[in-house]
Amino acid sequence: MYVVVARYLSAEDAADEVARLLVEMEPLANEEPGCASYVTHRSIDDPRRFMLYERYLDEAAFRAHTETEAFKRIVLGQIVPLLEERVRDTYVTLV
User: Which terminal CB of the chain, N or C, has fewer other CB atoms within 10 Å?
Assistant: First the structure.
């Protein structure tokens, strides 16, 4: 599996809107053919912090995800402008 862990820090007044948009994005991503799971999380300690845990069959499936209409419209078009920080780490499963 190809795994992406994305961490977001929203702007001060945008946390609830980022949360709403992530809730909108999650089921759309989970319907994609190469997506094994796409789960969004919000920090208990700091509600401006979000973590996305995404599993894809391979890197090509992740790349296809980034080309979807939903990713471009919701993530790039609406969420990213509301963020102060966006970090993505990629992994492969060991077993």
Answer: C
